[in-house]
Design brief:
single chain, 153 residues, three-stranded antiparallel β-sheet, two-stranded antiparallel sheet, 32% helix
Length: 153
C-alpha cells in the first residue's frame, strides 16, 4: 500500500489530473469529496480517452458532433470504485487487480481514503521476495542437475 495517497476532487480540471498522473508516475487517482470520502477513480485511460477525439474527421465536418470535450475530472471518472480495507490480504488485492482489469485499488477506512494499492505495488512485492519464497517459483536448487561439480572438500 502506498501512503500518503494522491487524490483529486471532482471539480478539478483534466489537465491538472493529467499532470498529477504524469509527475507522480501513477496510473490512477482516487476522486474524493472535501471530507476525503471516495467518490470514484480517474485513470490514465480516462484522461487519454477524453482528451483525444475518437474520430477527428467528424469534428472537422460537423464541429458540434460528439459535443464538447469533458473538462472536469467528475465528467470522466468512474463511479463506485472497487476499494479494499487496510487489512486486505495480498492475494485478495492481487486477485482483484489481475482479474478485474483495474490498475489501482483505493484503500479506505470509514469511507475515507488512507492509501492505494496498485499493480506496481504488487510487482515490488514480487521483486523483493526471496527466491525460495517467491510465489511463482518452485524454490528448487538452481544447481540441481548441473554437470558442474559442487564446491567444497
Amino acid at each position: 500500500m502506498t501512503t500518503p495517497v494522491l487524490t483529486v476532487g471532482p471539480e478539478a480540471d483534466l489537465a491538472s489530473a493529467a499532470l498529477l498522473l504524469d509527475e507522480h508516475d501513477v496510473a490512477a487517482l482516487p476522486v474524493v469529496d472535501a471530507d476525503g470520502h471516495v467518490l470514484g477513480m480517474v485513470t490514465e485511460t480516462d484522461v487519454v480517452r477524453d482528451a483525444v477525439p475518437r474520430n477527428p474527421w467528424v469534428r472537422e465536418l460537423h464541429p458540434s458532433a460528439g459535443g464538447p470535450h469533458p473538462a472536469r475530472v467528475g465528467d470522466v471518472m468512474s463511479f463506485h470504485p472497487v476499494a479494499v480495507l487496510p487489512d486486505v490480504e495480498l492475494p485478495v488485492a492481487a486477485d482483484l487487480l489481475v482479474n478485474s482489469g483495474l490498475t489501482s485499488l483505493p484503500v479506505v477506512e470509514d469511507g475515507v481514503v488512507v492509501g492505494i494499492v496498485s499493480r506496481h505495488d504488487l510487482v515490488s512485492v514480487v521483486a523483493r521476495t526471496e527466491p525460495a519464497g517467491h510465489p511463482f517459483r518452485s524454490g528448487a536448487d538452481p544447481d540441481a542437475g548441473s554437470d558442474q561439480p559442487a564446491d567444497g572438500p
